[in-house]
Every structure is written in C-alpha cells, then in structure tokens.
Amino acid sequence: MIPMDTLVADSLAIALPILLAALGGLFTEAAGVLNVALEGLIVAGAFSFAVAAEATGSSALGIAAALACAAGLALLVAAAADRLAANPFVAALAVNLLVAGVVGIVSEQVFGTKGVVPLAGILSPRTDLGILSRLPFLGTVLFRQRGFSYLLAGACAAAVVLYSYTPFGLRVQALGMKEGSLRIAGVDPRAVRYGAYAVSGAACALAGVALARSVGAWVPNIAAGRGWIALVVVYLGRKRPSGLLFAALGFGVLFALSNSAQSVLSL
Questions:
Q1: Residue-wise pLDDT tens digits, 127-157
Q2: 4-120+128-258 sits in which CATH class?
C-alpha cells in the first residue's frame, strides 16, 4: 500500500496542472464564454515546449514557445468568435481537433516518429531542501516535489491574484455579468475578452510544460483528458478559485489512487 505522505504528495503534483488549466478556463467563463479548447491548448503547449527545447537546448526558450503557441491558439478562438461570428464552442472544438492532427504530422517531420520522444535534460528533478525535506510527512508532501511544481504553484497563486484583486480581473468578471458597465466606464469589452482568452492559453501552456517535464519526454496525448477535467473543475468549483482548488485536489487524489492501484496490481 502506498504511504500516506507519498499519496498526498502525488495528489498535489497531479492536481497542479489541472488547477492551473482550470483557472485559465475560469477567466473565459467569467468573461462570458468558457474556452473548451483547454485540452488542445495543453497538448499544444507541451509539444511546442518539446520542439523548441530540443532544438535550442534551452528550457526557457521552450517555455516561451509554449506560451506563444497556446496563447496564440486561444486568441484564434476568440478572433473566430469575434471577427467571423463563429460559435465559440465550435471554434474551440476545431482547435482541439486541429492540434491533435497537426502535432502528429509535425512530430513525424521533426522527431521522425509519432511516438514517445525522450528529451535530454528536461526531466524536472525532485528538490532536496535538507532538513525540511526530511521532516515527517510535510517533508515528502511539500519539500520534495519536482522543481517545476513550485513554479506551477506560483503561477496558480498569480492567476488567483490576477482574477480576484486586479483591475483586469475585475473587468473580466464585469464583462460576464454586465458588459454595458464596461462600456460606460470607457473600457473596450473586446480587449478584455481577448485578454481572458490569452490568459487561458498561457495557463494551459504551463500545464503542458509541467506534464512534459514530469516525464522528461514528449508523449502523444500527453494531456490524457486533463483539459476536459479542468472544464469540469470550473463548474464543480462553482466558478470560485477556492472551489477550483478543492475540486482539482479531489481529481488529484483519484488519479494518485488509480496510479497506486495499477502499481499494486502489476506486482
């Protein structure tokens, strides 16, 4: 049986990418139309990171490429709805399908395979904070996570602050509740909506990078449904950051228990 501290640590690590993607989705939901392309954006972010990091040898450039690609695709969804009067849900689903198709083609051209691609130097190591990492229970749960998990936790905190305590976040919420109030205040609702979609893309990009770095490779279908789960988290959390946290943790526990059960049954 998996030790309790390991189970909790694994649950947190699994929950963080889901939570960040869900927070990105929350911005678009608050702006009036939930971006249902989260699954595709996570995959696009992870793949862009893998290609750029492998080509340049720089994780930082890989992250920048992931942010640019996923945010760009999210803005494409927003533009299709705004400029072409397309149904935003259909446009987002089209992006999911587009990413699934293009990634396989590009992977074969760049890596010579549509399968798993190991990435040298990409695996995020577990931290060792000395005495803190050796504390009973808390040491394993909080101080022996993979390094990128701390960046993800910081990104989640930043997203909550941006959503709840900044003028931009308050404008996003006002857009979904009463768009006319923004016009009266001299704020362009379209710009706010585009900003919300860009945030959702950036959040999914970091979630995708985290998944790639957690296994040290590009893996087809690396999101494994996490984008769809993030959409569920938005509603299970009743569209509140605190609610999203608990919902994401719940899914993290379920995934960790599932992984543990598979390990036990395979022995």
A1: 877 788 888 888 888 888 888 899 999 999 9
A2: mainly alpha
* All structural domains of the chain with their residue ranges: 4-120+128-258
What is this structure's pTM? 0.94
pLDDT at 135 (0 to 100): 83
Q: How do residues 195-215 score in pLDDT, each as one tens digit?
A: 999 999 999 999 999 999 999
Between the alpha carbon of residue 79 and those of residues 74, 84, 86, the distances in Å are 9, 7, 9
Task: Determine the Cα–Cα distance for residues 153 and 245; give it in Å rounded to an integer.
Answer: 11
- Spans of the chain, pLDDT less than 50: none
